[in-house]
Fold this protein.
Amino acid sequence: MNIGPYQLRALEADRFKLDGGAMFGVVPSVLWQKTNPADSRNRIDMTTRCLLIEGPPGPILVDVGIGGKGDKKFRSIFAQEEAAGGLTGALQRLGLEPGDIRHVILTHLHFDHVGGLTRLDQAGAPQPLFPNARHWFQRRQLDWARSPSLRDRASYQPTNWEPILAAGLGEVVDGDAEIFHGIRLYCVNGHTPAMQLVEIADEQNNLLYCADLIPTQSHIPLPFIMGYDLEAITTLREKERFLASAVERSTLLFFEHDPVNIVSRVIPHGNDYRAEPATWEQESTTTR
Ligand SMILES: [Zn+2]
């Protein structure tokens, strides 16, 4: 799909599973199991869906999935498998190598969003996978990731991002910003401090990369908030704000973790909201 000068593609990096109860917080399993059935270990299917934005600044990636550094135990806990060669495979099918990527926007530093930033070299040391890219971090998220709480520290693995900063590839921003014409970052704080959502907009169309504010289409109703969120009431207020705006502007919501639905629109439903199906069109081949 195209917005302004940008061509957008969804790239699936990994398939994995997370605990269904943790994904839906206080919502009873009889409700969420209707759309997201759990396996025998109570886990639901998840994906890591990155966004490739091609335009004047060069190829831009939004988030990079889990990547390949996890050991056997890690892969078993999360049933993680890189989808068809992972993110690198998806890029290569479009004629792109990791070295072609010019910018990587990191919504936040949880492992399922930034694990793919580094890979292990022969000596087992993590090295940047995108050596020619500027990597866009939020200051307060970086500060938090470097000294997380006991509650969320398992989500943060410094080997995912510190080699990027050590190599001088980091671009640390503080707060909302328009980093390129028509590409804006919006900070939200309920899931974790200063997670950045990414909006791509022109006069007619706009798309919101929802990250973990609305990780799947099933999370559109306001009370459907992940148990992982540090500040659930803050998430609720942020969802109210972004969903009201999405109705008004007919925003296409892009879901990072939904195993089936890439995008949807949203319409009011009583005092709440519900998904309005939308199709995602992208060319599977490139002329490159
Ligand atoms: Zn997260």
User: Anything to note?
Assistant: The mean pLDDT is 95. Residues 115 and 160 are 5 Å apart (CA to CA).
